[in-house]
Design goal:
The chain contains 1 helix and 16 strands. It has about 290 residues and is mainly β. Among the domains are: about 130 residues, no CATH class; about 60 residues, Beta Barrel (OB fold (Dihydrolipoamide Acetyltransferase, E2P)).
Length: about 290
């Protein structure tokens, strides 16, 4: 009798344990910061009918070149994607490049290609027809530097070496510019000036260039704005927008930043926030 009572009590104890509520352990609160999500390249002309940006065709294989050390420096090739009054959007292997002007860029077409080069304060923009390589426009920007060996000429830097530019019929017009002042001109095949213009550009770096792309870039600047997944950088040659998916570290407005593209690799670096402190020996100096 006693054995039956004990057995019944044990059975009730087991059943009570099985039907009692179970308290699951709460997951620990997440304290790590999630990486920035990636974002697609924003359409420069947003709208419900905007077409997606097609990928630019890969460049022909290029010969090995020395790593770039000049800052700022940009070497890019691209093709006309869209145009509107005074502005042209170009596809490049690293993203969109936009050129704007109040006095030119009114006749560009999708069948044209661009060669874009920046070396410190000198800018070279050349637009040619894709089929027969006919020159459409060639612009030079930089500090006005009179030629030293020939009167009526200016000195300019270019991707293929120094250029001697002839003032031609605009020599008198150029007398209003002082040496060292910024100047943008258009020249013909003989590098004779055919017009004086204004020209600005904005560059959007949104992807790593495909292998074999003819791209080199070294730009340092200061973070001017953070918006969504984009970092706006003010550089000596213009505004550059970086997409976080290319590997931008955590930054804040006002912070210096450097972008380096070479041999198909994109590197974004920040100056070290810590200054090394010299260590002192614990032993007394004899």
């Amino acid at each position: 009798m006693l054995r039956c009572a004990i057995g019944s009590f044990c059975t009730l104890l087991v059943v009570g344990t099985l039907i009692s509520p179970v308290h699951a352990e709460e997951p620990p609160e997440q304290t790590e910061t999630l990486p920035l999500p990636t974002a697609e390249t924003p359409d420069p002309t947003p709208g419900p009918t905007s077409d997606p940006i097609p990928n630019p065709p890969p460049d022909a294989p290029v010969a090995s070149v020395a790593p770039v050390t000049i800052d700022p420096f940009i070497r890019l090739r691209g093709s006309v994607w869209r145009t509107k009054a005074g502005i042209v959007f170009l596809k490049t292997p690293i993203g969109l490049l936009s050129l704007s002007s109040k006095t030119t860029l009114k006749d560009l077409k999708a069948s044209q290609e661009i060669r874009f080069w920046v070396h410190e304060r000198h800018v070279f923009v050349e637009i040619r027809k894709r089929g027969d390589d006919t020159l459409v426009h060639r612009y030079l920007s930089g500090p006005m530097t009179p030629g030293t060996n020939e009167p009526g000429t200016l000195h300019w830097g270019g991707p293929d070496g120094d250029l001697t530019v002839h003032a031609g019929k605009l020599e008198e017009h150029l007398t209003s510019y002082r040496e060292g002042e910024p100047l943008t001109v258009e020249v013909d095949e003989t590098n004779t000036i055919s017009g004086v213009h204004d020209l600005q550009f904005d560059l959007q770096i949104s992807q790593t260039p495909p292998a074999g792309s003819d791209v080199q870039l070294l730009l340092s600047g200061t973070v001017s704005k953070l918006k969504s997944n984009f970092v706006f950088v003010r550089t000596p040659v213009g505004l550059v927008m970086l997409n976080s998916k290319i590997g931008v570290p955590r930054v804040k407005v006002g912070q210096p930043i450097t972008v380096h593209i070479d041999s198909g690799h994109v590197t974004v670096t920040l100056p070290s926030a810590e200054t090394a402190t010299p260590r002192h020996s614990a032993s007394p100096t004899p």
